[in-house]
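FIELD: query
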Amino acid sequence: MGGTAMLPGFKHRLLAELYDLIEKPKYKEDLAVKTFKVHEPPSKENYTAWLGGAIFGTLDILSLRSISRETYRETGVIPDWSSLASSGEVSKEEKLGLKR
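FIELD: result
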C-alpha cells in the first residue's frame, strides 16, 4: 500500500475492479475466488510500505536477498528474487553479460 491507498474511494474502486475481473471468462472458470476481503493495515496507509520495509530489514533473509555494489558493478545483473526457488547466485553467463 502506501500513500496512494489514502485516496478517497481507493478501496471501493479496487474491489469494484476485482469483482469485475472475476466475472470475465478468462478468470471465471479458473479461479475459485468469489469474494475478496480487504484487511485494515497495522498502521496508517502512508506508513504501511515503510513498516513492511522496516520489518524486512530486520530479518535474517535480507543478507540472502542482497548484493553488494561491487558485485552489481562486476556483473551488471540484479538477481530475480521474486522466485523463492532462485538462489540469488549469478551464473557464469550472467556475469559475462550473455544472459539477462
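FIELD: remark
The chain has a mean pLDDT of 79.
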